[in-house]
What does this fold into?
Amino acid sequence: MLNKKALLLVFCGSLLFTISPLLYGQATGSFSGTVSDKTGSVISGATVRIISQGTAQEREAKTDDTGHYLIPLVPIGNYTIRVESQGGQTSEQRDIRLQVDEHRDVNFTMSPASVTSTVEVSATEVAVETSNPTLGQVITSEQVAQLPLNGRDFVQLATLTPGTTQETNPNSFFTSAASSEVAARGIYSLSVGGSRAQSTDWILDGNDNNELTAGGIAILPSIDAIQEFKVLTYNYSAEYGTRAGPTVLVSTKSGSNNLHGSVFE
It folds into this structure.
């Protein structure tokens, strides 16, 4: 009986370590699209592989009978996408940037394998997202790192989102109340389209980050730890919206294969 319990414990521990990378709460997105040939006919069974340019981690998927592929739960970052199919040339797109909560369509048109060259496309620009009706704005890592901030408070950058304003009531918990736990975490909260400041929903790496007493942000991460964040204003997915105001998705840096750091005074 004891041996069975020990084996069960070992099995559960092994399972936890196996799936723990998938359970990491960093904000994610997805890649999807269609693979076809130059005549417009879809290609089924093609292998679509995404490669993280920061960590070299790879994931892959196969196209279905309609030539469509989907790779979900992809951490934000820069990727290379490579498509291989029997009888076709290898096609590749580099420097594809996936942002917070972005569901990006990347389509491929493959040529016959009579010519053995590789087709490479550099895609550094941020694409217009057509598959998701959510309205909002991503504040990029460059903006977080380079724009001047009073007190290194990243929340100030959220006002770059159209329709977003800061708390202005001088008697608010978010501004001047010295005994307020909310004011200690940041000088103001957000209002979108006239919403109450305490109606903002804060999410840090997929986890609830709301201060419970007055509806402010609970943990105020350092700007050096933030990869980027997104302010969702309207029409966002049903997985969000636990509060009546905007939803702020903050994603921390995941690290890479290169050593880096920063200093401030």
In short: The two ends are 61 Å apart (CA to CA). Confidence is low (pLDDT under 50) at residues 18-25.
